[in-house]
Amino acid sequence: MPTPAFDRVPAAPNEDPDNKPFFDAAREGKLLLGLCKDTGKHFFYPRGVSPYTLSSNVEFVESKGVGEIYSWSVQRGKEPYCLAYVTLTEGVTIMTNIVDTDLDAVKVGQKVKLVFKPTNGGAPVPMFTPA
Amino acid sequence: MTNAFIVGAYEHPTRKAETKSTAQLHAEVAFGALQDAGLTVDDIDGYMCAGDAPGMGPLSMVEYMNLRKLRYVDSTDTGGSSYVIHVGHAADMIKAGKADCILITLAGRPRAEGMQTGTAVRSAGSGVPDEPFELPFGRTIATMHAMVAQRHMYQFGTTSEQMAWVKVAASTHAQYNPHAMLPKVVTVEDVVNSPMIADPLHRLDCCVISDGGGAVIVAREEIARKLKRPLVKVKGYGEHVKHQMAGQVDLTYSASVQSGKTAFSMAGCKPSDIKYASIYDSFTISVIVQLEDLGFCEKGQGGRFVMDGNLISGVGKLPFNTDGGGLCNNHPSNRGGMTKVIEAVRQARGEAHPAVQVKDHSLTLANGKGGSLCTRHGCGTVILEAL
């Protein structure tokens, strides 16, 4: 018996001046990563300072939205859902959900692609589904 | 080298505190530790607590207990490991001459309050920068630690049966503890056949939710030698914080790598010298990762290390959590660091239950982990010497 992912609608993420560009882009279906312009390295979660230097010389860049599952777990219960870390091809690993799939078939190393899902009255958030 | 000794230790016997307030529990464990040490409240000139203490930092509890002679306070909060780190800070302050006799308390009542500790999505409050990138995905304490277990299984071949051995060892010890919440001895089969909570963690891979608390008193050597209790010296300690490293997530190790290295270096000893270890056991996988990180076995070998009763006192090479730990005895206020220190003190004194007391208790260790192994957490390691 497969376990279909429950279509939960998360509470709206708290938006603030620091993360506003990320959630503004999410409303347009874009997943943004931080890029430190001094070191050329991506970072996540996005923030207004570089986690490598603490300088404000950063920009937000759009991710290709593809990667593979680094780890996962299904919260069991009446409404099962899958928490995961996905490593994007840009080299950063982000927390997300694996959705629109049989949760019994989720595997470490599985290729996945980006899909935005609505929240309860807030910006949509980036989730992933098998590629 | 330090000149600090743990002179008092007390664990509250309650596991469900419906008729007591959190402040009251803090004061009761403080009194218990003072009685254990043979000290009075007027001997206390330093006080430490963490986020479980009601009010702003240490202020409300200092007033509630009417402490009047304080020269030093510290409310460092790294979750469940806070109290292990406090012991280290206390030793530092005693060495620096900032205090002579420092009280550390922990207490809480999540069980009486009906808290869903492990399986509910919980926020730490407004303005926390990481939460908008995590809370929408319904992360829970259980699923986060389960992701650590999942990766460990994938990368190192660790099995559910191996993780279950951690619980089997804890339950074998808990049968001798009259206060343990879960005193029944369980088998590997019991663990792997218990309901799946968050793949791959079963119900019996998870610690208890309990009320209560504990306290310890750290004092300078001159005071310790005047008291009538066995001498337990703080020989070394370390602390470290690990996180998601801006997206370079690595779930295979914890902050105990660094906290342990610092503590062993300061104590001038190595893992094979340790005769008993209290290891933070929020989940069975937590223990496996910390044992590897502290150097009790190679990275990735933790599953094999804990098999076949290797953590059971009188049976295995490294007796652990002889009170039953958080998995079976007590995890007061969802913070297991204090009880880890207390059982290490009991072992160092030779005052653990006779059925689980290790014969050679010259060197014991307590390791704490607070926060989430999966995202952000702080670890503290303390090494104690029985003189």
Describe this structure in words.
The complex is a heterodimer of chains A (131) and B (387). Chain A is mostly beta strands. Chain A has a single domain (20-130), classed as OB fold (Dihydrolipoamide Acetyltransferase, E2P), CATH 2.40.50. Chain A has one helix at 20-27, and strands spanning 32-36, 42-43, 58-62, 66-75, 81-88, 93-98, 111-117, 125-130. In chain A, a hairpin with a 4-residue loop joins strand 5 (81-88) and strand 6 (93-98). The longest helix of chain A has 8 residues, at 20-27. Chain A starts with 19 loop residues before the first helix and ends with a strand. In chain A, 42% of the residues are buried. The model of chain A has no long low-confidence stretch (mean pLDDT 96). Chain B has 387 residues and is α/β, with parallel strands linked by helices. Helix content of chain B is 32%, strand content 18%. In chain B, the strands form 3 sheets. Chain B has a 5-stranded mixed beta sheet with strand order 1-7-4-2-3, with helices on both faces. In chain B, helix 2 links the parallel strand 2 and strand 3. In chain B, helix 5 (160-174) crosses helix 9 and helix 8 packs across helix 9 (284-294). At the A-B interface, strand 2, strand 4, strand 5 and strand 6 of A face helix 4 and strand 5 of B. Chain B: Residues 238-376 form the Thiolase C-terminal domain. Chain B: It comes from Rhodovarius crocodyli. Chain B: GO terms for molecular function: acetyl-CoA C-acyltransferase activity.
List the helices and strands and how they pair.
The complex is a heterodimer of chains A (about 130) and B (about 375).
Chain A: H1 20-27, E1 32-36, E2 42-43, E3 58-62, E4 66-75, E5 81-88, E6 93-98, E7 111-117, E8 125-130
Antiparallel strand pairs in A: 1-2, 1-3, 4-5, 4-7, 5-6, 7-8
Chain B: E1 4-11, H1 22-37, E2 46-48, H2 59-64, E3 72-74, H3 82-95, E4 101-108, H4 141-156, H5 160-174, H6 188-192, E5 196-198, E6 201-202, E7 212-220, H7 221-226, E8 232-242, H8 256-267, E9 276-279, H9 284-294, H10 302-306, H11 325-329, H12 337-349, E10 363-371, E11 377-386
Parallel strand pairs in B: 2-3, 2-4, 9-10
Antiparallel strand pairs in B: 1-7, 4-7, 5-6, 8-11, 10-11
Helix pairs in contact in B: 5-9, 8-9
